[in-house]
Amino acid sequence: xxxxxxxxxxxxxxxxxxxxxxxxxxxxxxxxxxxxxxxxxxxxxxxxxxxxxxxxxxxxxxxxxxxxxxxxxxxxxxxxxxxxxxxxxxxxxxxxxxxxxxxxxxxxxxxxxxxxxxxxxxxxxxxxxxxxxxxxxxxxxxxxxxxxxxxxxxxxxxxxxxxxxxxxxxxxxxxxxxxxxxxxxxxxxxxxxxxxxxxxxxxxxxxxxxxxxxxxx
Length: 217
Description:
The protein has helices at 3-6, 18-27, 39-46, 54-62, 70-73, 87-114, 118-138, 144-169, 178-188, 205-211; strands spanning 13-15, 35-38, 196-197, 200-201. The protein is mostly helical and 217 residues long. The longest helix is centred in the middle third of the chain and has 28 residues, at 87-114.
């Protein structure tokens, strides 16, 4: 019943992250044609530095609250799948998604045109949806034996570097723990902190690069 509508290129389709939907539909045997807009991509063009999830977009642009998925499926050990959600509840949730998406589509279309970005959306972003979907579903070939050798080489090198770091620090600590790295650098070794955060002294890349001029570790 749905396939003639979904496969008709004359019927324009809009969605939120249609690349994901396209893969789901293809695996189920549907041929989606007529992709005309994607609110996730539009948000990316309009606000590159922001998050582009539907919940956030709905709150920012429409001033409304999207039903959290946890209200339907729960969380933790008691979490269920959408297949187990009562049809009426799943219907309301899906219709809300569709309603918010179509309302955002109209707004984003106008803003893209006003800012001269509609051509980028039309000529680059939308055609890439199907291209990237094809690539992701096809996959790529990997030289697994070579990658295994590379993994072994890197593991050996990492073990040597870890041993050297702990030798310089005067004791063992967890290199993957920012708290332990900060303790080693700023308390054990007494290096001067570069910047602080709510959780303590920063150990980000910029900080480590600055400290590299002071200490071999």
